[in-house]
Specification:
heterodimer, A: 7 helices, globular, B: twelve-stranded mixed beta sheet, 54% helix
Chain lengths: 256, 402
């Protein structure tokens, strides 16, 4: 594990993490002794064949599931000690998700979709509209603000979904197969969008995927197999580098 | 989030399904509101009828002797035409009893009359009025029943006609001095009444009045159907009852008569109406219950259909409470819409039925309030289970269902 040494500004710290489903002889270990630390501002691809445990790990990181052993600290807080309710609150404020299927709510406009998480966070109407418009602009889809998901292409919808994820200013952006439902061209656009976001606002991105294209856009690649981390390495410099925004990266920005 | 907005959006999106779901509530509320409103209208109508007749009237009817366990159930209202509702008790009351009641030394009794129903048809110039009834009365009857004369008066030999009856026989011609026939005997018309509302069960407009003795002779009876006593004031009614009882007991030691005050009859009728109304409303309430179960059923379907939406919302930070409120709003709104439609339909039905039956009927505020509160309660109660199920859904679980 080339990058196991702890970062100065660690966002995620996972030690000896395990997840077991069932009991006794029927028990299945989805994750075994996973050690992982991710710094603020990193862009990580979590890869592996299906059944490797990457979705389980993603669910635990996203506080959708609870580890059965080990520890998980997010931004210095021990997540496994929190109640389900406290976890939900933490998730609401700090973590954003982009899903494989394009989970925009079909009967809301793009703007209303982007507003939604901030509405749930009880943010006042005018400031959430401002934040939503900014996020749409950041993803280059501000012209779609008043359209409904059925009036957008897959790639456009997924970019709106990403805008929705980043608008509240989360610490961590988790993406589960974000290109899975897209054609190759749209997929590239979406990945480009992730990368721009990462470069411009320095949000920490963890993408779960088995799409090798994604790996080309990530800085770091973590591979799982049978519940074990089998590889964790920094990949070569990304294909597209936007020099103008490099200074916006986190304190570890130079570690690429 | 604007929970009601989301709820309306969802209801509108599934219009047909929402309508069918709400239909259960529509029917339930419709039935409850219509029945309670009509019941209330009947009660008000009966009340007004009685208060028009006067609260100081006391009716004496024949009954089985007191020794028996019978308390003959309400003898019609007023003058039912010689039928003693459930038991055919032959009357033993005679004009002599009336004279005894009219004896001047009764401080509480103002006056009294006796009536007899004549089971004959009345005709004029060969045309028979089948709706008309013929009653033998004494002179005080008209004042006691609060009916007054349009023209002419009551005499010991002629006949007095109710306003509709006079119109149907004579049209615009003045009937005074003309004759009508009862059982082949011609009687001169000596008076015509003003149109009036009588006590329930009577219609002064459609009645012809003969002198008591004439009527008794005509129907070969030596007894009268009933007697009506008027107390000097409404407060003196109990005292008048006592006086009348004392007089009649002397003449009828077996106590084969029954004395009813207008107030007693009124309260019997009112409470009977209330019981029937409540009973019917209760049965109708069962359909509301069924409607509620329909809502619960559809909401459970809605929740499982919207697993993904719920998951997305939770992943975006919706709390359990937000989801609970969202789905609860939907079921309450659905029930409320049903309740509203049901109330509107009930308003129409009440007006139509009231018009058809001829009583002034309208929705009562009370029944509308009850209906609205009840439908909201049904939506809330039957929406809780589906909404809780939605709220407790784990986001990961919810998103996995694609």
């Amino acid at each position: 594990m080339a990058l196991a040494e702890s970062k100065v500004d660690g966002l995620i710290d996972v030690q000896g993490l395990g997840r077991r489903y069932g009991e006794g002889e029927a028990a299945v270990d989805a994750l075994v002794d996973v050690n992982l630390s991710i710094a603020r501002g990193e862009m990580v691809a979590l890869m592996g064949p299906s059944g490797s445990g990457k979705s389980t790990l993603m669910n635990i990181l996203g506080l959708f599931d609870r580890a059965t052993s080990g520890s998980y600290a997010l931004a210095g807080t021990d997540m496994l000690r929190l109640s389900a309710k406290a976890q939900a609150e933490f998730r609401g404020r700090r973590i954003a998700f982009v899903f494989q299927g394009i989970h925009l709510l079909p009967r809301l406009t793009a703007l209303a979709n982007v507003e939604l998480p901030m509405a749930y966070a009880r943010m006042p109407k005018d400031s959430r509209i401002r934040a939503a418009r900014e996020a749409l602009a950041l993803l280059g889809v501000e012209s779609l603000a008043n359209r409904y998901p059925s009036q957008m292409s897959g790639g456009q919808a997924q970019r709106v979904a990403i805008a929705r994820a980043i608008a509240p200013g989360p610490d961590l952006l988790l993406a589960d197969e974000p290109t899975g439902a897209l054609d190759r061209k749209s997929g590239r656009l979406v990945l480009q969008a992730f990368q721009n976001l990462h470069d411009q606002i320095g949000v920490t991105v963890v993408i779960v995927t088995h799409d090798p294209l994604v790996a080309q856009h990530a800085e770091r690649l973590i591979e799982l197999e049978d519940g074990h981390v089998i590889d964790d390495r920094i990949v070569r410099d990304r294909i597209i580098v936007d020099d103008g925004h490099d200074s916006h990266l986190g304190p570890d920005g130079g570690s690429k | 989030m604007n929970a009601l907005g989301i709820a309306w959006d969802s209801i509108w999106h599934h219009r047909t399904r929402s309508f069918l779901t709400a239909l259960g509530i529509v029917i339930g509320v419709f039935a409850v509101v219509t029945l309670t409103s009509l019941g209330g209208a009947v009660k008000t109508y009966v009340n007004s009828k009685f208060s028009g007749v006067g609260a100081n009237l006391i009716t004496v009817v024949a009954s089985l002797p007191r020794s028996g366990s019978h308390h003959g159930f309400g003898h019609g209202f007023g003058h039912g035409g010689g039928r003693n509702a459930f038991f055919s008790v032959p009357s033993t009351l005679t004009p002599a009893d009336l004279n005894a009641l009219l004896h001047p030394h009764q401080p509480a009794i103002a006056t009294a009359t006796a009536t007899i129903a004549v089971p004959d048809l009345i005709s004029h110039a060969g045309s028979i009025d089948n709706n008309a009834s013929i009653l033998g009365v004494t002179a005080p009857y008209f004042g006691m029943q609060n009916v007054s004369f349009e023209k002419g008066r009551f005499t010991p030999t002629g006949i007095v006609l109710g306003s509709s009856l006079a119109k149907s026989f004579f049209g615009k011609t003045d009937p005074i001095g003309k004759t009508v026939k009862v059982a082949d005997t011609a009687y001169p018309v000596t008076g015509v009444l003003k149109s009036a509302q009588g006590a329930p069960g009577t219609d002064p407009d459609e009645t012809a009045y003969l002198p008591l003795q004439t009527a008794m002779a005509l129907s070969h009876q030596s007894t009268v159907t009933d007697m009506v006593i008027s107390a000097k004031t409404a407060q003196l009614v109990p005292k008048a009852v006592k006086e009348a009882t004392a007089i009649l007991l002397k003449r009828h030691p077996s106590h084969n008569f029954k004395i009813e005050t207008a107030q007693e009859i009124l309260s019997t009728v009112t409470s009977t109406t209330s019981v029937i109304t409540d009973f019917l409303a209760g049965i109708a309430g069962i359909s509301l219950l069924v409607g509620g179960i329909g809502i619960m059923n559809i909401m459970l379907v809605t929740v499982s259909e919207r697993f993904r939406e719920i998951g997305v919302r939770k992943a975006l930070g919706a709390r359990d409470g937000d989801i609970l409120v969202q789905f609860l709003s939907e079921s309450i709104l659905l029930a409320f819409i049903g309740g509203f439609l049901g109330t509107v339909l009930a308003g129409i039905a009440t007006a139509v039925v009231g018009k058809a039956v001829g009583i002034p009927a309208a929705l009562t505020t009370q029944s509308v309030v009850v209906a609205v509160v009840f439908s909201i309660a049904v939506g809330a109660v039957f929406g809780v289970l589906p909404a809780m199920r939605a709220a407790r859904l784990m986001p990961a679980e919810a998103l996995r269902t694609d």
